[in-house]
Each structure stands twice: as structure tokens, then as C-alpha cells.
Amino acid sequence: MLKFSVRHYIYDILIEKGFSETTAQYANMICLLIAVLLIAFIVDFITKRILRRFSAGLAKRTKTNFDDILISNKLPRNVAHIIPLIILIEFVPQVFTDFDYTENIIEKTLKIIAILLTLRIIRSFLNSVKDYLKTLSRYKDKPIDSYIQVFMIFGWILGIFAIFSILTGLTFIKFAISLGTASAVILLIFKDTILGFVASIQVSINDMVRIGDWITFEKYGADGDVIEISLATVKVQNWDKTITTIPTYALISDSFKNWRGMMSSGGRRIKRSVIIKTSTIKFLNDEDIEHFKNIELITNYINERSSEIKKFNADNNVDKSILINGRNLTNFGVFRKYLQTYIERHSAINKNMTLMVRQLEPTPQGIPMEIYAFSSDIRWQNYEYIMGDIFDHVLAAVTYFDLQIYELSVANSD
């Protein structure tokens, strides 16, 4: 008969009452298991209450909101499970003293649970750090999610190694060394993760993309604001409110456009042209010049240029019986000057940035007249309104200079 002890207390009583040894062993194990589980449950309940009250009181007394974030991420609740788990691990040999095989399985299971609990606590802490850093203005545009995911990936790798080490009975170091031969397979499995990790570091170091940046990535159909940068993907909320997901490594392997420079410059570029029919361009005679003097924006220009041209032609005895001789004004040149003056005086144009009206290379349709300037308001809706207002005026003003805008005419098929 086994020597009397606490762990065999029920066993000894049942043997004395005439029960079989097997029955006594199972009854003893079940009673001890219920007692240990009950103790662990009570300790877990009490520990959670104590930690909850302590953390809540601490959060009220401190000025920082970091402890509030720890509570919201359930860190105290996860930490509270440590003591009950230790109790279970310590009492397993006592409960399953007559069941060595079951004891081995339960011990391994509890150790695996301990590893998973540790990873859960680490994740809660890292998520708390992430949420706290996002409340600080200097970290709002940083890819904090990527860094947290990197730490968690390494944590899970170590945790999985430890679990397999427990299951196989090998030491952690020996198990890790034995995986060296399978490194090629591991690299293949985690290819995207590794690429994403390297890309996240490069994106962060080179400051290529921040949260809140407006980017355009035609290959993936993305055109909008970056709302999340993680280890594997970058999420872009397009202007139609759809979400486009881009692989992080695509930011360093493909070409995309980041509009941050425009947003911080204080101006948004206007680069649009109208095509003037070549057949409507002409030299101006005296009657035309007198007519254009009535257009206020170019009155001074017409007076100065016409006086200068007349003086040049007189000094050089130019025969003006034919209009092409000597120097002349053209309705196209006067229109270009008019647009330049109009843009320079427009209240919505940024005067500190490039501003010009230029004539582009002739095309089969006509000669493009391009306005190149920057609006002082970079907001999309206001930008479109400013550009529309400018070209409404341009289109209406063309006829005042005896010019016409090219329009494609489609022959009637009938």
C-alpha cells in the first residue's frame, strides 16, 4: 500500500473502504483535479479584481493616458492569468501522480498555454504602445503598425519554436538548429513577410510615404489618402471612398506619385490649354488696335507696344502699305498677354510660384495656348472650382480677340 500523503488522501480512504485500486486512483485524481481547478478559478477571479481596481485607480491618479490604453487592451486581465496558470503547473504532478502518461500530456499542454499567454501579454503591451504613440503628433504619420507586426512575427516564431521544442522533447537550441536545413522552405513561406519587412524599413528611413499622404498608384488603381501602413500592405482610401490595398514592397519596386510636396508647397498646379484655330490668327491693323485698347487689362500694354512698334517702323522706313512689313501686333500675341495679366491679377492664384501663359508647339488641330500656374487653395473641390472659373473666362474671352477655339466636327454618316 502507498504511503499516506495529501495527494493520496482520497485514495487511502477508498482503499480502506474496500474499493479497488483502479477505482481509488481515478476517484482520487478526479477529486484533486476538481479541487485544483476550483482553487485556480478562485485565485484567477481574485487576481483579476485586484489588478482591475489597482490599474483603474492608478489610471485616475496619473496624467498620462498610457495606463488607460493598457486597460483598454486588456493587459491587466491577461497578466491576472499568470498566477492561476502557475498553480496548475505546480499541482499537476500531485493530481496525476498515478497517471504518468496523462501527467506528461497535461504538463506539455499547460506549458504551451503559458507560451501562448506570454505572447498574448506581449501583444497587448505592444498594441498599447502603438495606440499611445498614435496619440502623439510626431508619430501620427509613422508606420507604427509595421514595427509592431515585426516584433510580433519574431515573437510568434520564437513561440512556435518553443512549442515544437516542448512537443518533441528537444531543447530549444537543438530544435532551432535542426530547422537550419529547412531554412529554404521557411524563406519561401515567409517571402512576402520578409519583403514587406525590408520595404517597411526602406519606406520609413527614406520617408517615402506617411499616413495621411495623398498618393497615386496607377498600377493598383489607387488615388487617395494613405490610412494605414502595415508590414505587408498599405491601405489607400480613394476619393470615391473605396479602399485599395497595395503590397508594401510595391512602393519600392514600382513607381507611384506622392502629392505631399504639392500639399506642403501651398499651391496646386494648374496646367491646361485651349487650342486656337490657326486660320483665325492675324496681324492687327490700326482699327483693331484702337478696338483692343478698350480692354482694360491690356490698355497700357497696347499703348506701349503700339508706340514702340510705330517708332521702330518709322525709324527704319518700313513700308506699311502691306501689313506684314516691319513689326506688328497679332491678335494671338495680344490674347496671350491678356491671359497673363488676367492670371497675375486673379485672387486665387499663388503669386509666389511659377506663373505663365505659353504658346505650345503647333498641332494639326491648331496652336495650344497653355496656362501654367498654381492655385493658392490646394483642396480638391476648391481647386477644381478655381480652374473652372479661370477657363470659363478664357473660353468666353477668345471671341473678343477675333480668335476661335478648335472643335472637332464629325461628318454626318447619313
From TrEMBL:
Chain segments annotated as transmembrane: 26-46, 147-166, 172-190
InterPro entries to which the protein is assigned, alphabetical: LSM_dom_sf (IPR010920), MscS_beta-dom_sf (IPR023408), MscS_channel_2nd (IPR006685), YbdG (IPR030192)
Main location, first listed in the record: membrane
Subcellular location(s) of the protein: Membrane
Entry keywords, A to Z: Membrane, Transmembrane, Transmembrane helix
Annotated ranges, domain Mechanosensitive ion channel MscS: 192-260
PANTHER family listed in its UniProt record: MINICONDUCTANCE MECHANOSENSITIVE CHANNEL YBDG (PTHR30414)
Name by which UniProt lists this protein: Mechanosensitive ion channel family protein
Protein source organism: Winogradskyella alexanderae
